[in-house]
Design brief:
By secondary structure, the protein is α/β, with parallel strands linked by helices. The protein contains ten helices and eleven strands.
């Protein structure tokens, strides 16, 4: 039976560390979140981010913009926040309405305030191993591994998914931690065989129950990044948890695994940004 990696407990531990560090600072780290439109899931995420800032003693402000906001209006607000000295981190909640160029918006954020680590400057620094910030979900995964005593160096790591938000950056971070990394995707031949080679398997494809027991080797560490709704309407991950858990050595549940770590790493990035501007 696998050991369950408790993301809630590890997240709480890190937030306590952040709260203590923030309490000793002369400058209160500040995070600005921008939400365009009425996406219900995005509203929930934004509320959680604001509450998390309050929990660790950070300043936060949320800018709610109507769905018909123009790209130029959004860029004007971002430029204002770029100049605002009390704001150390800027986050534009994705997805954006179709009429707004997501790439242009990301590039308009001051790289020193890009706490999502989406700006090409920060992605480049991550790639060469000199990061200013770490992308939040991948950073959360690395913390889960580290604080669970799981060594990455020398391990065969397989990442299923190649998104810019999770798949690519976690592959880079595992590589920097001296893992031997394979990235799998929709064009991979014999995906199951590739997955069975993994000592550390990370799934970030967004398909409920996609990783089945026959795709996992005995004793593998299984990290499930997926957040999906099953046929019963309940939250579930990419991994068939009930079938895979008896084979794995460690596994993250959904909910309660990787999910709680993402906002916590956002807070950590905001703290890093504030320290850089002191």
């Amino acid at each position: 039976m696998a050991k369950i990696i408790d993301g809630k407990a590890i997240s709480a531990q890190i937030r306590a560390e952040l709260r203590e560090e923030v309490s000793k600072m002369n400058t209160k780290p500040g995070l600005a979140v921008i939400l365009v439109g009425d996406d219900l899931a995005s509203h929930t995420y934004v509320r959680n981010k604001k509450a998390a800032c309050e929990e660790v003693g950070m300043y936060s402000e949320v800018h709610y913009l109507p769905g018909e906001t123009t790209e130029s209006e959004l860029l004007e607000l971002i430029e204002k926040l770029n100049r605002d000295e009390k704001i150390h981190g800027i986050l534009v909640q994705l997805p954006l309405p179709a009429h707004i160029n997501e790439s242009a918006v990301i590039k308009s954020i001051d790289p020193g305030k890009d706490v999502d680590c989406f700006h090409p400057y920060n992605v480049g620094r991550l790639t060469i191993g000199e990061p200013v910030f770490l992308p939040c979900t991948p950073a959360g995964i690395m913390e889960l591994l580290s604080r669970s005593g799981i060594e990455v160096a020398g391990k065969r790591c397989v990442v299923v998914g190649r998104s810019n938000i999770v798949g690519k950056p976690i592959a880079i971070m595992l590589l920097h931690a001296n893992g031997t990394v394979t990235v799998c995707h929709s064009k991979t031949k014999d995906l199951a065989e590739e997955c069975r080679r993994a000592e550390i398997l990370v799934s970030a494809v967004g398909r409920a129950g996609f990783i089945t027991a026959d795709m996992v080797s005995t004793g593998a560490v299984v990290i499930d990044v997926g957040i999906n709704r099953g046929p019963d309407g309940k939250l579930c991950g990419d991994v068939d948890f009930a079938a895979v858990e008896p084979k794995a050595s460690y596994i993250t549940p959904v909910p309660g695994g990787v999910g709680p770590m993402t906002i916590t790493m956002l807070l950590k990035n905001t703290l890093v940004a504030a320290k850089q501007r002191v």
